[in-house]
Amino acid sequence: MATTEKPARKPNAAFMKPLTPSATLAAIIGPEAVPRTEVTKKIWDYIKKHDLQDPKNRRNINADDKLRPLFGKEQVSMFELTKLVSGHLK
After folding, report:
1. Which of the chain's ends, N or C, has fewer CB atoms near its CB within 10 Å?
2. pLDDT tens for residues 67-78?
């Protein structure tokens, strides 16, 4: 019985298109245009570097002075993060 190999998945072009961050988002990830996937990675790097995950509930992210204008509140869940960030990309 022969096994059939699946072709490697191609990344979705929409995710790979470089997007320009707003000034608010650029304060966190830098001003250069990057793909959406890279934006998420850089934000998580920032959150981990500054220890901003809520210690009681790791799914929540506490805002610091740079994240507060991006979030619009003191704390967001990781599930809200993508929606909030997408408004800051062009």
Report:
1. N
2. 999 999 999 999
